[in-house]
Input
Amino acid sequence: MRLRIDPPTPLAIFTEELELIVVVPEVGIPSIFAPPGVPRPDRRLVLGLIECAAAAVSEDDRDCVALMDHCSVSLELNGEIKGLESSFIVARGKQAVLGVLVAGTRQDARRRARQAVRYFTGTIRLDAP
Output
């Protein structure tokens, strides 16, 4: 499972094989992609990944956050190519390396990261162990 990004980002993770991709559109429900044969990730794992991405965005971590003015993103999975909305994409590589792709400004990135954390926190009952 790979992402095709045009123009390419400076982050190496987006050229590697990925094990998990979370696409958070500006409006609507986020999408989660995993390689075929791999079970859907647990909600708590996805929430943790999104919280790490939000922390990286708020700290302006250039090692894992790529801010782009505009780009086109497509997902290559099983030989098929699917276009993705590129506003906020979180990817996890094979060695648990995190990458965040944001189309927009730093303020857009922070806003979208907060939206993603709110959405995924709402999917988990925090009173249940």
